[in-house]
Amino acid sequence: MPLTVGQKAPDFDVVSSSGKELKLADFAGKKNVVLYFYPGDFTPVCTKETCGFRDMYQDLESKDTEVIGVSVDSNDSHRKFAEEHGIPFDLVSDKNKDLAKAYGATSLLRDILGKMKRMTFVIGKDSKIAGIFEGELSASKHVEGVRELIAKLG
After folding, report:
1. Is residue 143 part of a domain?
2. Is 12 within the bounds of a domain?
């Protein structure tokens, strides 16, 4: 069953490519979380999307919001991607798609291709889903949607 706005976000406890442990519970009551799933490092739309979040990261941080990117790429690929594009937030390798499955960011076609769907979840400080953005070829839909929603959440 797909996740919906207002629903409690599935818990996660993952380790980023930089070795940092990230738990949804640690953000509860303190920060909003932008958890975005993307098909792959170094691809045109994914790079545009990630760089879009990078470019507004300071603004998001000032609004008590953390960004976490997730794909099936290896930690080594994530480190290279982050270094090449100056990504200041954490990237997570979800090789087995456990996190993607919990959030519904998988599909038959994406599974066949060994990737995950482009989906962005905004999780409020109350650990509930405040917004969901989908769209395979539109990075701006995700980036602008997050910008507008975080401005409303305050």
Report:
1. yes
2. no
Residue numbers of the domain that contains 47: 31-153
Total number of domains in the chain: 1
CATH number assigned to the domain comprising residue 80: 3.40.30.10
Q: Which one is catalytic: 24, 46, 146, 150?
A: 46
Q: pLDDT per residue over 121-153, tens digit each? A: 999 999 999 999 998 778 889 999 999 999 998
Which residue blocks in 14-125 are alpha helix, DSSP H? 24-27, 44-55, 57-62, 75-85, 98-103, 108-113
Q: What is the pLDDT of residue 154?
A: 64
Q: Is 51 a catalytic residue?
A: no
pLDDT at 45: 93
Average pLDDT for residues 22-40, to the nearest whole number?
96
**17 falls within a domain:** no
DSSP conformation class of 12 = -
| CB distance 154 to 63 below 8 Å | yes
